[in-house]
Design brief:
mainly alpha; 12 helices; globular
Length: 290
């Protein structure tokens, strides 16, 4: 992996991890589903516009359309929608820790449903990840974490893992920015239907809300998604997924710095264990050099 790929991977992790902090700010002042639907509408239209400027077409291949639909529903509507709702009652650091277990869930599901053999190294990584999550959640439960919000985050990360498994290789063939834009528009359309039936659009305007909304729309929403697709194209999905091991630390650090969320010693130990587990699983799945 060259220097440019490493820079891309670290930048993606930082962008992705920051989304939980900005989401926490947004849901404190605006209805979560409506805010997310508007975000996807703006990000999606920008993505499609940029794609057209770059000469890309919306005449996608059937696998690419399937990827757009699955990502739009599972990743955008379910995963992010549930996380936005959950962060009304739980801290951003909790949400990012749960979301960061996605590579572990993908590895576990690949073994259960696709018969992918797990090496001793991968098994150790999975067990470490489970142990780290148990440590953090155990201390949080004793401190009175909201169970409903926690369940929503768990369902969300399962939906994200399903999306990841379902679109493996489906985004090949070009038109990356168009795929990014269209899958956001699909997610926004689904969320809009939910918002109309469940929420009243009441917003407590402030500069922090505007800044957080602009950030989550342009950076985690658009730039990070495009960067991820480019990184996968450049180094393969398995190697790109290695950078997810940075997410627990970066996400929790961002929430602590910007939101002032408190960390306990058990949290730090658990984050380190989860990080080590994710890295171990991803390194074990890399193809061996010939």
């Amino acid at each position: 992996m060259d220097i440019r790929s490493i820079v891309m991977g670290v930048a993606f992790s930082l962008m992705w991890s920051s989304a939980f902090t900005s989401a926490r700010i947004i849901v404190a002042s605006a209805p979560p589903i409506s805010a997310l639907a508007i975000r996807f509408l703006i990000s999606g239209l920008l993505g499609v516009l940029i794609a057209r400027i770059l000469g890309q077409t919306w005449r996608l291949t059937p696998p690419q359309w399937r990827a757009c639909i699955i990502l739009g529903i599972c990743q955008n509507a379910l995963y992010l929608g549930l996380n936005f709702v959950a962060m009304q009652t739980i801290e951003a650091s909790v949400a990012v820790i749960i979301a960061s277990t996605m590579p572990l869930l993908v590895a576990l599901a690949s073994w259960i449903f696709f018969g992918e053999r797990l090496s001793l190294m991968a098994t150790a990584g999975l067990l470490a990840g489970i142990l780290g999550v148990a440590m953090i959640m155990g201390s949080r439960f004793s401190g009175g974490i909201d169970t409903y919000g926690l369940i929503l985050c768990v369902i969300g990360v399962i939906a994200l893992a399903i999306a990841t498994l379902s679109v493996r290789g489906a985004t090949s063939g070009g038109n990356f920015m168009m795929i990014v834009g269209l899958q956001m528009l699909i997610g926004g359309a689904v969320l809009s239907l939910v918002a109309v039936g469940t929420e009243t659009l009441t917003i407590d305007w402030s500069w922090t809300l505007v800044a957080a909304f602009a950030w989550t729309t342009l950076i985690p929403g658009l730039a990070a998604t495009l960067l991820w697709f480019r990184l996968v194209q450049r180094v393969s999905a398995t190697r790109a997924a290695t950078f997810h091991f940075l997410n627990p630390f970066l996400g929790v650090a961002t929430a602590a710095i910007i939101l002032g969320e408190k960390l306990h010693p058990t949290d730090l130990i658990g984050i380190a264990v989860i990080t080590a587990g994710i890295l171990t699983v991803q390194l074990s799945r890399r193809p061996k050099a010939l």
